[in-house]
Amino acid sequence: MRHGCHGDFATFSQGGYGWVSHTWLRVEQKIKESNRMTFARNPAVEIGLLLLLAGQAGVSHADVKAGEAIAKSGTGNISACMLCHGLNGEGRPPAGFPRLAGQNRDYLVKQLKDFKAKLRTNPLMRPIASALNTAQMNDVADYYASLPPWKPGTGPAQNTAQTPRGAQLAQHGNWDKGMPACFACHGANGAGIPPHFPSIAGQNAVYISNQLNAWKAGTRINDPEGLMKAVADKLSPEDISAVSAYLANPK
């Protein structure tokens, strides 16, 4: 099994994810054209750079205070976000409501737009997102992005029986099945690579498990280039349980 960056990338490309190779070449071209920076050919970094550049066009000057008001009090017929996502955006783990605090703002805006456009389904989020205009989406996303992110060591105690398997999948993947590590796309220790790859470190296990199962079942389809569907299809129920538990409090 190869765990080095170049080895992982080669296997990843050979495993049917040719879009990564294409993306990597586009990043390399942008670097050559700019001639302003040089760095090692690290696929995760280069992919992140391209996606970051692509996301800049959507950046807006949002009103964080207005976003806080919507999050804590709601507006019009929109319920307060905190009712499900917690007073400080920490989420509600037992119910599977995700942590939003410290999440990338562009990712949050995309999810709200996808709920509104029915590209992502959820009976609670669909009517809320539909009632928000673009400015309000930006405001709420900027507010949650401004909150402190998850801090290592503050998650639930890990199931020691699941930890080795969860850590293996998150850190190294399973190349026997052609599956990359979670951190290959979601960044070092799961901190996220905006705008498409959210932070997953410290996200509650119920939410992660629900999303992996949704991708596996084909009921969530708004991942870039079908990447998460391809990954989830390679995970067994035991794998999903182990990696979800590990990501809730990675070490």
TrEMBL record:
The keyword Iron applies. Signal peptide: none annotated. It comes from the Bacteria. SUPFAM superfamilies: Cytochrome c (SSF46626). Residues 62-148, 161-251 form the Cytochrome c domain. Heme c 1 binds at C81, C84, H85, M125. GO terms for molecular function: electron transfer activity; heme binding; iron ion binding. Heme c 2 binds at C182, C185, H186, M228. GO terms for cellular component: periplasmic space. This is Cytochrome c4.
